[in-house]
Amino acid sequence: MADQIETLVTPEMIKRQGVWGHEEASFPISLSDIRKFAIAVYWPQTPPRLFWDEEYARTTRWGGIVAPQDFNPFAWPIKNEDPAERAAGGSRPRERRGMNGGQIDTYFQPMRPGDVIRARHRLRDWNETRTRLGLTLFFYTETEWWNQHDQLVKRHVQTMIWY
Fold first, then answer.
1. What is the dihedral of CA 140, 72, 60, 108, to 10 degrees?
2. Burial of 10 (0-12, 13-18, 19+ CB in 10 A)
3. d(CA 74, CA 79)
4. How many structural domains is the chain composed of?
């Protein structure tokens, strides 16, 4: 089947490029959330004491318990939405296939018990080219997490590939 489409870039994508969408907030992070997450990701080993031992954590440079960097305060959302689709305005080209092209996470301030994390999403940019799959769109979304002190916690850039 010949690829007859001239571009996979939709008008909605052009309109949304670089524009931050609405913010969402996590529930407050509890000490129990951090402990359970650390136990789960380090199982069957014992997680580092920084994630569960309050007395020990007070002696570290953090001065208390912090969450592992990959802790996700949005892990159990009430409503499930795909941030990449939301950033693009739900404008995935019809009758096209897609796949995850990877992600890059950059960490800044650690998350602590009591933190409320705000997340915002945007379509950062894209690159359209022809590959052996035909017309292919490399689509980059960006998510930032901020704590209640307006400190950047994490930046997540995801690559989606549509063809």
1. 20
2. middle
3. 10
4. 2
User: Do 87 and 110 share a structural domain?
Assistant: yes
- 43 domain residue, yes or no: yes
Rounded Cα gap, residues 16 and 82, in angstroms: 16
Residue 161 has pLDDT above 60, yes or no: yes
From the number of C-beta atoms within 10 Å of its C-beta (0-12, 13-18, 19+), residue 141 rates as: buried
Report the distance separating Cα 71 and Cα 56, nearest Å. 20
pTM for the model: 0.81
Helix/strand/coil for 49:
helix
Render pLDDT for 88-141 as a digit per residue (tens, 0 to 9).
Answer: 555 555 567 889 999 999 999 999 999 999 999 999 999 999 999 889 999 999
Query: According to the model, what pLDDT value does residue 27 have?
Result: 94
Full residue range of the structural domain in which residue 43 is found: 30-72
How many residues are recorded in the chain? Answer: 163
Per-residue pLDDT, 62: 96
DSSP string, 94-132: TT--EEEEEEEEEE-SPP-TT---EEEEEEEEEEEEEET
Residues 92 and 141 in one domain: yes
Amino acid identity, residue 46?
Answer: T
